[in-house]
Amino acid sequence: MSSEQGSVAGPPQDEYRILHEADLRDYLAAVPAVAARLGGAAEAWSIGEVGDGNLNLVFIVKGADGGVAVKQALPYVRLVGESWPLPLSRSHYEYLALTHQARLVPGLVPAVLHHNEGLALVVMELIEPHIIMRKGLIAGALYPRFVGDIATFMARTLFFSSDLALTAAKKKEGIAAFAGNHALCKITEDLIFTDPYRVAEQNRWTQPWLDATAAAFREDLDLHAAISRLKLIFLNAPEALIHGDLHTGSIMVTEDSTVVIDPEFAFYGPMGFDIGAVIANLLMAYLASAGHETSSGARRVFEVWLLETIENVWTEFSHEFLELWRTEGHGDAYPLTLFPGPAGAARLEVERQAYMARLFGDTVGFSAAKIIRRILGLAHNADFELIEDPRQRAICEARSLRLARAMMLEPSAFPTIGAVTMAARMVRDWLPDFAN
Amino acid sequence: MSSEQGSVAGPPQDEYRILHEADLRDYLAAVPAVAARLGGAAEAWSIGEVGDGNLNLVFIVKGADGGVAVKQALPYVRLVGESWPLPLSRSHYEYLALTHQARLVPGLVPAVLHHNEGLALVVMELIEPHIIMRKGLIAGALYPRFVGDIATFMARTLFFSSDLALTAAKKKEGIAAFAGNHALCKITEDLIFTDPYRVAEQNRWTQPWLDATAAAFREDLDLHAAISRLKLIFLNAPEALIHGDLHTGSIMVTEDSTVVIDPEFAFYGPMGFDIGAVIANLLMAYLASAGHETSSGARRVFEVWLLETIENVWTEFSHEFLELWRTEGHGDAYPLTLFPGPAGAARLEVERQAYMARLFGDTVGFSAAKIIRRILGLAHNADFELIEDPRQRAICEARSLRLARAMMLEPSAFPTIGAVTMAARMVRDWLPDFAN
């Protein structure tokens, strides 16, 4: 729909060029759906570049009647520069993922107004007055809608792209449609599943306090085997169309609303990678919280809420996913004809629980991987980075690494989400050697 | 190379038509690579249709200098007729798989001389004086080359299309290239992983002796859960480019040579499906052997060889696959940089053994699935079908089902291939109730 508008209004096969402010104004003025949303004279629109991510240009454009966000991919990693090229096609995959999500969870993702594949450009509704969730969590804010919204987002986007909902033919079509997004997958493969465990130029950590831990992680062969098993799942398990980068920096919130953005890493991969990303980032928010205290215990209410939120993310996701399976499980996996009658229904329910237990195991592993990469790898989290005292930051990070290492090496010690939050509480006040 | 010859010599974008004898003669005469192979005047070539498979037309063409096999896909399942349509594209996937295999195991697959995608036609070298291995096994023949050849075929075709050998980008490209072969996958999904366990019009079994067993399999919910888990792996684990139909009817043999044919079911799926197919068909040959005895014990040497062969198929496959991993494991999975030095090498070796144990578990499950479908589903095996006395046939089939059911429900009782052959020996002389 939006793309058809685009192909009528804007030139559909534009040759790529970076759109600077004046260009962009003219371009948007020629797209009826966008011009109508903005309203008023194009000359009066305000345009500001706000991209604070690592990869793209992002413009906020406001007119008399409303605003839009314009995201244009650059042919390289913005954070690094032209020395690290990255295909423009990621914009197309982001567009495909956004439309998939918009169909399943309208209101939980920005509506797409226009897409131009040649320009690697997506124009979306402006999400306001939301802020990036990570910023809110650093400030100690509570988001009562978040659990329900993110559980619904994950349950619906994952379930409806899985073999539980789709025919095998449709699923293979989806896998093939996203197979070309391998350059973005490669970033994940390198930065999450490989580099933090070996000497890599781009790695960094809070020195000197974490030097010994970073070295221990680089030498821990059991950990290397565990992360390699997780990498193999990432390479080899197209369970569902996953967001692929579902951290709290990809989620915009108010108290009343949750909007998930930036699915340019989307591909058919393991569901646990998305769920683990959410849980990992909440665990880091929890363990970073001590670093943002103005006085001891000042953020206790926030921290209690956060632990409950972590538990409820899994519990509510699991509840919704299972309910979808029970009511809309018409895919080729687990055909209902093999489980007839009350006895069949009961046996299938046992199987569903086993499926969720396996998925939870993946989630724990991927969650651990996401924590470790944020502390020992290239891309760090503001949750920790904004802790001013580096020694205090290192203490919070060391606690997180201690938890993550246990989660990765001893998944059977974390059979439930309660076991994860219990371990997080236990490590909350642990002091690493350098702090004694 | 072959396809280029085709696109020069024959019309590359022919509209599909079924080639009858006269047509075929004219067509082949216009393909230089084929005409040269056959030799002499086209009018003197002998052409015979020999397709005894379920899906396609197969012609043997012989000339003064040599012969070729011509395989043309029909737009429906030959066995059933036009009421069961099947895409012609399978010919293209067969061609892709054949060229992949020819690159990795030349000599173990027929060389492709010509391919015409529009006509759904592949012309291959004629494999002679080989016979279909299943026929040889029914006759009690021994094939000393078989183990080494099939182990090499599987080790090389599977390893070199896996994440252990490929970059993730290359692997995703391969997955996408075969995603369109879903109609052939669907046949497997239905006929192997679903129908034998429910009432389905096409199911058949040796009546009345197996009526009770067939009913028990249709009502065994634990078995339905187990086959559904295997189906999920089939749907969801693009580990490698598998042959997809690797039974003893897809293998041509002499005492000195082994050639694998008919990879039209090829796609990126679980490796255990191919290995399980080979082992299942050898187990069936073993348990059918009693039905072909002229006197008790007359085929003992053959049966001993068959059990050794089953063991060696796994052992030699595993040995070759591991050796390839050790020497050519440059793919994105298990990167060597995470396992440096002697300690790293030792840890990775432990991980390799764990990988093979998991793969063996899949193999046992898929092997069981392949046995059950041949006795309770649509497509049966000549191994059993040619046992003239139906009661004796039912006894051999009941033994096979007993073994397969245990393998599917209690995989942990089959940790090694020796446990599988031991169970096969134990069930070799078991008598079902109806035989007492």
Would you write up a description of this structure?
- The structure is a homodimer of 436-residue chains.
- Chain A has two domains: 2-125, Phosphorylase Kinase, domain 1, CATH 3.30.200.20; 131-435, Alpha-Beta Complex (Aminoglycoside 3'-phosphotransferase, Chain: A, domain 2), CATH 3.90.1200.
- Chain A is globular and about 60 Å long.
- The longest helix of chain A is centred in the C-terminal third of the chain and has 36 residues, at 341-376.
- In chain A, helix 12 (300-328) runs antiparallel to helix 16.
- The model of chain A is unreliable at 1-11 (pLDDT under 50).
- In chain A, strand 6 and strand 7 form a beta hairpin.
- In chain A, the strands form four sheets. Chain A has a five-stranded antiparallel beta sheet with strand order 1-2-3-7-6, sandwiched between helices. Chain A has a three-stranded antiparallel beta sheet with strand order 8-10-11.
- Chain A contains 16 helices and twelve strands.
- Chain A has helices at residues 2-9, 21-29, 32-38, 90-104, 133-138, 146-159, 168-178, 182-191, 211-219, 221-236, 271-289, 300-328, 341-376, 382-385, 390-409, 417-427; strands at 46-49, 56-62, 67-73, 76-77, 81-85, 112-116, 121-125, 131-132, 240-242, 251-253, 258-260, 267-269.
- Chain A is an alpha+beta fold and 436 residues long.
- Chain A binds chain B through residues 163, 168-169, 171-173, 175-176, 179-180, 182-183, 185-186, 189, 194, 197-198, 221-222, 224-225, 227-229, 231-232, 235-239, 332-335, 337-339, 343-344, 347-348, 350-351, and chain B through 163, 168-169, 171-173, 175-176, 179-180, 182-183, 185-186, 189, 194, 197-198, 221-222, 224-225, 227-229, 231-232, 235-239, 332-335, 337-339, 343-344, 347-348, 350-351.
